[in-house]
Design brief:
14 strands; Metallo-beta-lactamase, Chain A; binds zinc ion; single chain; 27% helix; alpha/beta; 9 helices
Amino acid sequence: MTLTLEILGSNATAPTAHGPASGYLLHTEGGLVLVDAGPGVMAELVSRHDLADLRAIVVTHLHADHSLDLMALAYRWTFPVALDRIPLYAPAADLARLRAFDEVFGITSLPGMAMPIHEAFDVRGLHLDGREEPGLEALGLSLRSYRAHHPVPAACLRFTTTGADRRVVAFSGDTGRCPGLEEAAHEADLLVCEATYLEADDAALDGHGHLTGLMAGTAAKQAGVRHLVVSHVATDDMRPHVGGQAAQTFDGVVSVAARGKRFHL
Ligand SMILES: [Zn+2]
C-alpha cells in the first residue's frame, strides 16, 4: 500500500508566516488521517482537501497547539449539514478535558451541537501502552500509542501499514527523552520528531518534556530510523539550523517539516 505524509503545520505554540501549529496528514488508499489539530490546521486542510475524505483524527495530547482546531472541525462536522462520524483518538487518561472543551463551546439551541466534538466524532481513548488501537483496519493501518514524557497524558504514535509491503511512520508528539519515543519509532521508515529548541535548560527538556535538534537526532539514531523529519520548532529563525543540528547526531536522511511538503513512503 502506498502511504504519503503531508505536512500541514510544523510550528510549536501557534501559527506563524510559515503556517499552522502542529498538523499532519497521512494519505492512505482508503482516505486521509489527520494527526494533531493545532490552530490553523483546519484552514490549511480545507485549502487543499475535501473534509469528506477525512477518515480519522488522532491527537497526541490536549495542549492547545495540538488540539485547538478540533472545535473548528467539530462545528463544521455538525453544522449546517452533518458529515459522517469518524473516529477521534486522544489519550484515554485525558478524555475528561475533551468533555470540558465541549462544555465551554457547545451550542444547546442547535441540534447536534450541544457537545460538538462528541457528537461529530466517535471519541476513542489512546492507551499509551503499545497495544493495538482498533478502528483503522479499513484504511490498511495499524496504530499503537506509547507514553510520551510531557506534563499531560501524551502519545508517541506508531502507524504500520498492514499489507505485504510494510511501512512504518512514527510521530513523537511533544516529548522529552523517554522509552516510549524509542518504542514508537523502532526501525521506522519515517519519524516526525519534535525539535522545539536548538538549546534549552534541563527544566524545559527533561523537566517539562521537549527535545532539541541534537536530541531528536539521537532519538532517531537509537531507534534505527531511516528518515527523520524534524518539526514543532519554537521560532521561525530556528528553521535554517534545526536540520543541521539533528544531522550532527543522526546519519540517516534528515528533513525539516514545512507546510505543504510531502514525503512518500
Ligand atoms: Zn505539549
